[in-house]
Fold this sequence. Notes:
CATH superfamily of the largest domain in chain B: P-loop containing nucleotide triphosphate hydrolases
Oligomer: heterodimer
Largest sheet of chain A: 2 strands, antiparallel
Number of domains of chain B: 2
Number of helices of chain B: 10
Largest sheet of chain B: 6 strands, mixed
Bound molecules: adenosine-5'-diphosphate, magnesium ion
Strand order of the largest sheet of chain B: 6-7-8-3-9-10
Amino acid sequence: MKRMPLYLALGALLCVLPLVCNAYWLDVCVMIGLYALLALSLNVILGQAGIFHMGHAAFFAVGAYVTAILNTLCQWPIFCTMPLAGAAAALFALLVARPIIHLRGDYLLIVTIGIVEIVRIALINDIFGLTGGSNGIFGISRPRLFGFRIVKSAHFYYLVWGMVGASLLLFYGLWRSRFGRALNCIKEDDIAAEGCGVNVTRYKLLAFVLGAFWAGMAGTVYAAKMTTIAPESFNFMESVIIFAVVILSGGSQLGVLVSAFLFIGLPEVLREFSNARMLIFGLAMMIMMIWRPQGLLPPGPRHYAGPSDGLPPAAPRAGNQATEAGRSA
Amino acid sequence: MNLLALQEITKVFGGLIAVNDLSFAVEAGSIVGLIGPNGAGKTTVFNCITGNYTPERGRIFFDGEPITGLKPHRVVELGIARTFQSIRLFGRLSVLENTLAGRHCRMKAGLFACMLHTPGQRREEKAAVARCMEELRFVGLADRCNEAAGGLSYGNQRLLEIARALASDPRLLILDEPAGGMNDQETADLVEIIRAIRQRGITVLLIEHDMRLVMQICEKLVVLEHGALIAEGAPEAMRRHPAVIEAYLGAEDEKW
Lengths: 329, 256
Ligand SMILES: Nc1ncnc2c1ncn2[C@@H]1O[C@H](COP(=O)(O)OP(=O)(O)O)[C@@H](O)[C@H]1O
Ligand SMILES: [Mg+2]
């Protein structure tokens, strides 16, 4: 792995950051981590499988609300709600994605935008009398990990970035396996993928379900960090930002991290320029798209034990020697 | 014994009858050629066999089992692998990864095993890589395994499609114009490769315009015109068959 040193450097930097940052910047870093988590999970769907899904905020919302409801109404501890939040988001994803999974490109994009809006409006309308309407839910308690209460920004910082680290490892494993290859094949040419034995519908749905599970868990952390959630936190703009982070990244996980820093961190850095801030940000994005339309960091090639470390010895192949010579000429 | 049997297959596109009441069979262990003028419906027949299209009427049997209307990936799992007339490789993936895509349906590692790289998953992956390298060696592309598939020459891309199909352990291999875009030397190599495939016990059904190739390797020809069967039998007999000569009259590019 060529990018290992970069990851180690980034990891070390992230470990010591809370020692030098004030609370404000730590909060910014928590948000960056949260978006990184969301974008890493969307990257499985959008980056690896090439499914144009712009509704990730819907799954994020389902997770956050499941945690908020279970915690405030049933007094469940935050971490106990996390698997359920993930599972609820995954189930929701399965139900809404099943009928639309065969749609392509822009058609799917429009439907997924619709999903975010439907979820947001359902939340505002106090669906099942559980979501608190447009005021949302407040009084969500702080999480406890083995008796340790996670309250301060620094605590959340380590929690979120710990989850980012774990996600990096798990999704890297996925990328290197038959699963990741199947998603890449679907992205390249889904008819060819199906034609050489990949169950395209199943893998697309699995990508959706997995990505939604992660977004649901990110929702848990968000609810616990904010202690108050409202429908407006899960609007279409959130989906667009997560989507843009993945597109800007180029599809690699390191790219997603860098891109999350740029998208969430840069506007904060530019806050001094108050009025011109969004203008500068927009210009930077435009220049990016002109210079690097493929994104910041496309994924590198996978390495396989065997063929990569020295070629296998030349073995006799089908056909005669004359044809062999003919081909190498 | 028949490995593949088509019974009264009809496929309609709008008002056009692309395949009309077609029946033929492919004997296990043979090499059969499906020929006919351009637009005769040959590719459509292939797409019906592989599940890309569902025929309006008729039934298809593979090894005695009905496969009509199954999804393409199920057909591959049952043992029919194909190549495409318009090459459909995964251009940005490597040559080896393209072959591994064909191996996918013979692997079992699930979502969690893949995320966690369990020992079983790693063992399976290693075996798959070894097997796919064998297939690449078989078609003569082993030394290109790490290159992007999109960068290969036309002829080599056709060979890679064959390697990808072979990696799925097919019992029947169907090739849609495998020599299309190949030069004479490459076509000669291809003949050897197709013969070697049969040696491995794999039945071959192919569409081909290169009549020299067809006459060289096929034991049986099925001739289509306007979606209907006009003749079938040994290549020599087909060459002299009046209906076949009629169908090919005026098509100068078809040299016999
Ligand atoms: N997907 C499709 N939709 C409409 N018409 C089609 C489609 N596929 C093939 N056809 C038509 O069916 C006929 C047979 O095509 P095809 O099977 O590709 O012929 P061949 O492979 O023998 O050259 C042609 O007239 C073609 O235009
Ligand atoms: Mg054709």
